[in-house]
Amino acid sequence: MASKGSSMSFSRKSYRLTSDAEKSRVTGIVHEKLLNDYLHRIFSSPEHVPTAATSRKPLNFQNLPEHLDQLLHVEDEDEESQGQVEGRLGPSTVVLDHTGGFEGLLLVDDDLLGVIGHSNFGTIRSTTCVYKGKWVYEVLISSQGLMQIGWCTINCRFNQEEGVGDTHNSYAYDGNRVRKWNVTTTNYGKAWAAGDIVSCLIDLDDGTLSFCLNGVSLGTAFENLSRGLGMAYFPAISLSFKESVAFNFGSRPLRYPVAGYRPLQDPPHADLVRAQKLLGCFRAVLSVELDPVEGRLVEKDSSEWQLQGQPTVLLTLAHIFHRFAPLLRKVYLVEAVLMSFLRGVVEAGTPAQAQSVVRQVLDLLWLFMEDYEVQDCLKQLMMSLLRLYRFSPIVPDLGLQIHYLQLTIAILRHEKSRKFLLSNVLFDVLRSVVFFYIKSPLRVEEAGLQELIPTTWWPHRSGREGKDSKDVKDETAEERVRRRAYERGCQRLKKRIEVVEELQVQILKLLLNNKDDNGGEASRYIFLTKFRKFLQENASGRGNMPMLCPPEYMVCFLHRLISALRYYWDEYKASNPRAAFSEEAYIPPQVFYNGKVDYFDLQRLGGLLSHLRKTLKDDLASKANILIDPLELQAATMDDLDEDEEPAPAAAQRPTQALAMGGVLPLPRPSWLSSPTLGRANRFLSTAAVSLMTPRRPLSTSEKVKVRTLSAEQRTREDIEGSHWNEGLLLGRPPEEPEQPLTENSLLEVLDGAIMMYNLSVHQQLGKMVGVSDDVNEYAMALRDTEDKLRRCPKRRNDILAELTKSQKVFSEKLDHLSRRLAWVHATVYSQEKMLDIYWLLRVCLRTVEHGDRTGSLFAFMPEFYLSVAINSYSALKNYFGPVHSMEELPGYEETLTRLAAILAKHFADTRIVGTDIRDSLMQALASYVCYPHSLRAVERIPEEQRVAMVRNLLAPYEQRPWAQTNWILVRLWRGCGFGYRYTRLPHLLKTKPEDANLPSLQKPCPSTLLQQHMAELLREGPDVAPSFLNSVLNQLNWAFSEFIGMIQEIQQAAERLERNFVDSRQLKVCATCFDLSVSLLRVLEMTITLVPEIFLDWARPTSEMLLRRLAQLLNQVLNRVTAERNLFDRVVTLRLPGLESVDHYPILVAVTGILVRLLVHGPASGTERATSVLLADPCFQLRSICYLLGQPEPPAPGTALPTPDRKRFSLQSYTDYISMEELAQVEQMLAHLTSASAQAAAASLPTSEEDLCPICYAHPISAVFQPCGHKSCKACINQHLMNNKDCFFCKATIVSVEDWEKAANASTTTSSAA
């Protein structure tokens, strides 16, 4: 084994302890006096220091073992090894009793010290109990939820409702509710937080029980404990679902030992003394150097010590490690001795000096210890570092976290140690990426934030898009001073956090090193294998929360990974000019279909991978020169069909078949893939990586590459990078892709994993952390309201003033706390640098989708999460990073908006995308995109061809697709142009609660005349576009309004019952949704009539009359239902039920009015006449409904002025803030026109016999005859019927044609025939 500290190489076997025959020869390495001085200097006993050199016994390598035995002798060792201590019963190694001492469902760690609640209120106790003496154990709080920690006897019986402290002889402390429990409960202690350590102390001599939090006593909790025969107490805990803790009974050094109290598990005292003495000897070796020429010892700094191959030093170290190596495998000793030594090295010197010493130490460990000993030692060392970093308190300078990270870096800089830890510990034993997380302090005072940020400030309003925000120029001078002082404090905090973040990035740079492939695989490729497995576990275990890496860890890990990734990407670009900068990064489309990257069971845009490989195998062959192994297709099909495990014979045959194809014999399936917790999809791995079976030379265009499945663990560096640039991950380049490589293939896979991480949990966590900002806004609003009340309160009301002052103080203190927490959140989650990381991911996804789209049908292979991340990252940038940072400040903001708009416009109706969820997401994203001016302008900037195609897809018939979202998009393009449609808050709510700031707000109108113009052109374009679109709109309007009426009938019936009834909130929500849909559909009809009135009014078109009659029928139904006096609608609106705030007369009546005004006032004379006749001819028409719009119970007499509206009645005249005077005049003109036309129609109408009426509706005269059967009806009924059915109403014969029929003409024809 090579010593990394020198240029020489030593064989480990050469420095094993020599035999007696060899010792005489070895003694002469240096002269005896110098050797004696050196050995006495190294192995001196601190208890017995001789006064003179002559009194020392001469030391050499012959008598050194005897001297070491004396030095390491410990008194009372035999007594300690017995493990029996008075006052304690049970095994000497204390763990949780997972065999019988539990209640409920719990998940216990492999070391039987960590536990996670997996049921309502599970309970577990330890294997050891105490009945006499003073004892202590520690509990590390991993989550701050509902838990009760303490002691219980073996006779205590627990269940899912009652845990520790809820029964006699069980006692518990609950830091979540800040109480103590023993059957009854009282206030005790203080609140705990994740990362705290609770010490549980029991004094069975005095019969008392107490607790400490982070080493600070909370006082005596219980006295007069039951003692005596049969009374022994077990450590125990009850915890609710998903809560987790870790126990330390003494297997590791207690973090906060208490004088006089003994841990339940005795520390290894004798071994601890030996290890400390041997460590002293080892440190002496590092600080002393032999000078054979001068014959003296030279004191040196340990950071300058180098192993130079001196036999005397090597033999001395061999003697030390012969005794030290077995001790360094024990958890307690690693943490108490080795960790303490290394921490001292890091804290005492500079980072460079510390790294030098740690490197020398690790070199010596690998040189003088067996591999399994070093590996156990390193594993325990890294686990200890993890615990210390994760649960150390946050101090003002973050010094503890910095030291632990510096030590971690020093260890990982050692190549051999790094590769071992990557292969066996990181991502395997450490399931969470803890070293990249910066936890948020829940106690502001302990973290020193009051000193860092002495002045607090908070924004007055939320700065998210679509809501009002207070401009900086409106600040008062005092507010400006406070804000700037607060920002300076935030900058100080940010600089301290950046030091930690930079250290975390250094760790990832070490793990991503691909130059350390001397004698083995480079670190980066080991990292890729483990990283992919980490992603798989998190992607497959979403429903199994304990298996997941916490999302807050994922956020930090993602940002550090992006920093390290871009560093290596740009470093590669510097040495390879043909490569791309990280700013131009994307994932080439061949990565998605050549199978070299494992996407587990994640959905592709085109469906399942096995299905795509079968249906698109010809496209793969023609466009990418890839042939799928037939055995692969057959295996995928069987995996899809078979729900059980693969039969043994088939499993045995598959390697033989693969070998016959020329492939490599696959390795055995890793055991972690067979875990029942990972689900069926992972066991089959239908999307596993694919191995090449091709000569390592450039491919010609005619050659086809046959591929087969290869698991991620079996991949080598060559499988990823390839021996030629077009191989590896870039196998199967389509002709649309450029020939030059972007970067190293391994970095492409890291980037792909980073995008997957964002999709798995990072986006949800970014949204969750906004809650702190929302809390600040709520408390700021409450404080302003309280201050307003203080100003208005009469001075004589001292009682009210005192209560308001008290509330003001509480709100101010809470805001001070939250504003400092918000500063921490902004520095760690929402800083400008973090925003740029998310923005970079967004641009990567956009370029990836654009390149994938060019491949045609192969675009279907892209995983869905690329589109999801593009949508969600834009949403996060827009909504989560304000008001401190604005997306508009980002470089290339306008171009990015336009590119995203083009993707949404093209792919929301892309037939290559089959997943319902992703199609809905695209539709919702487009609907949100057209709500805001900036993003709407971006839609208008995309090429005209794409805009027209988007509008064409929006106008497609609504059946069998998510029509509601499509309709919202069209409404938002119109909002601001319709009749009375310019409001940002519902007018009827502002009339009843004008001062209520919590009223739901709508986006400011931003109509698009350009897209409206495209819509008009398309509706005029073909004979079928407008009818199919409008018929689907009318059908959905009929359904939505009918559903709404049915639901309000049920609500009214429930409200009228004598017994108390609660209407289901979900029913109220659905009812409100149906109402909103009805209003939006009416607005789309208003837009259509405004843009293209001839569709309804030009009866030269074959469908115009039918559409107009259907429209009139629906408008009359809506008016009659909504405007009837004291009707159902009125009564439900009067109830003002929560959830039905949007249901009122104004929204729906102004929408209907807008349609009627367009038809009857703005249209041409001929069109107005047709519309009037159709409206009046409808049997449901009531002039009273039109009068209702202006607050009139009955039509006014001809020639008289409109009376003043009754304030108690609804009237459009009451909403002059939202309806212009010109619009009101048009309504009055419409009412006058309909009043006159109605009177004329009544005078001119002739009585009609019943036999001349349509036998279907009995509302219109017969006007059509069916051929060939000759049955008759009115045109409206037959036209509507023929939309869905071609059979006659009466005889069910197939209708070939419909002809006009008039009674007079038919009668004259009959008379002439008879003559």
What can be said about this structure in brief?
By secondary structure, the protein is α+β, with helices and mostly antiparallel strands. The protein contains 44 helices and 25 strands.
Provide structural commentary.
The chain has 1315 residues and is of the alpha+beta class. 50% of the residues lie in helices and 8% in strands. The protein has 44 helices and 25 strands. Strands 3, 4, 7, 12, 13, 14, 16 and 17 form an eight-stranded mixed beta sheet that branches. Strands 2-5-15-8-9-10-11 form a seven-stranded antiparallel beta sheet, with no helix packed on it. Strands 20-22-21 form a three-stranded mixed beta sheet. Helix 23 (745-792) packs antiparallel against helix 24. The radius of gyration is 40 Å and the shape is elongated. The model is unreliable at 1-28, 48-54, 462-473, 638-702, 995-999 and 1307-1315 (pLDDT under 50).
SS strand fraction: 5-15%
Q: Write down the overall geometry.
A: elongated
Helix content: 40-55%
Low-confidence stretches: 1-28, 48-54, 462-473, 638-702, 995-999, 1307-1315
Described by strand count, sense and barrel closure, the largest sheet is: 8 strands, mixed
Radius of gyration: 40 Å
Number of strands: 25
Distance from N terminus to C terminus (CA atoms, Å) equals 125 Å
Alpha plus pi helix count: 44
Q: Which whole number gives the mean pLDDT? A: 82
**How would you classify the helix and strand content by structural class?**
alpha+beta
Keywords: Cytoplasm, Metal-binding, Methylation, Phosphoprotein, Transferase, Ubl conjugation, Ubl conjugation pathway, Zinc, Zinc-finger
Catalytic activity: S-ubiquitinyl-[E2 ubiquitin-conjugating enzyme]-L-cysteine + [acceptor protein]-L-lysine = [E2 ubiquitin-conjugating enzyme]-L-cysteine + N(6)-ubiquitinyl-[acceptor protein]-L-lysine
EC number: 2.3.2.27
Protein name: E3 ubiquitin-protein ligase RNF123
